[in-house]
Specification:
It contains ten helices and no strands. The chain is mainly α. It has a domain of 94 residues. Helix 4 packs antiparallel against helix 8. The longest helix is centred in the N-terminal third of the chain and has 34 residues.
């Protein structure tokens, strides 16, 4: 009996040691998991939640801007660049360019349509371009909404109700006037097109790096705005009264 009791107590001690080892190993693994840094979601620029292709509309225009088809996007960029060089470099006039383009276009189609019967080929089919009433009403509705919002903002600024918006508009117009004095309207339009046509593609390619830099820049801008607000804008009576109300 004593030998069986000693044997049973030995087995119990072994089981206790095993349970203690399992408990210590599980607690250590839990502590290691707690020490591991949790992966945080990367913040997108301007709080964007959807992919850039979806933000740009997700259609053919987004495919062109993001250079999904490099040959098509490159051809459009080359064509716009040639037109800009014609106007800015050679000094071609817009009305002359339109008339010459229409002359070439009409001549090619006229000759092709008449020569097709002599070479036993079908004449070219000119595409029918018809604007539907729904499309025209949709465009008119969008333009009407934007124009009304612009007039509403101008009325508020001119009536002296919003000094902050007035100062912002003056600063923006002054900045645009400086740029306009340095470049011609055509060059400025081409530069805006070039930026709008290439920057989204570059942003999508280097999205993570740009988001980090952009977030830091936004934080710094907010800090500078708080400094300006505390030192300058808060001392203006009109703005200080609005903040109190």
């Amino acid at each position: 009996m004593s030998e069986s009791e000693d044997h049973g107590s030995l087995l119990e001690k072994i089981n206790e040691k095993i349970h203690e080892y399992k408990h210590s190993s599980s607690s250590s693994s839990d502590s290691d998991d707690d020490k591991k840094p949790k992966k945080s979601k990367k913040k997108k620029l301007f709080g964007r939640k959807h992919p850039l292709h979806h933000v740009l509309g997700g259609g053919k225009a987004a495919d062109l801007v993001l250079w999904r088809n490099k040959q098509t996007s490159g051809s459009i960029l080359a064509g716009v660049t040639v037109i800009w060089l014609l106007f800015e470099g050679i000094g071609y006039h817009l009305l002359t360019f339109l008339c010459h383009s229409l002359i070439v276009f009409l001549t090619v189609w006229f000759v092709w349509s008449n020569a097709a019967s002599f070479v036993n080929r079908s004449p070219p089919k000119f595409p029918e371009v018809i604007l539907s009433e729904v499309q025209c009403l949709k465009i008119a509705h969008i333009m009407r909404k934007e124009i009304n919002e612009a007039f509403y903002t101008l009325r508020n600024v001119a009536s002296g109700k919003d000094l902050k918006t007035y100062l912002m508009m003056v600063a923006v117009l002054w900045f645009i006037s400086i740029i306009g004095s340095c470049f011609s309207f055509l060059t400025l339009s081409y530069t805006i097109f070039l930026m709008a046509y290439t920057l989204p593609m570059l942003y999508e390619k280097y999205e993570d790096q740009v988001d980090v830099v952009g977030e830091k820049a936004l934080i710094e801008i907010k800090k500078q705005y708080k400094v300006i607000d505390a030192k300058l804008l808060s001392k203006i009576p009109m703005l200080s009264e609005k903040k109190r109300h």
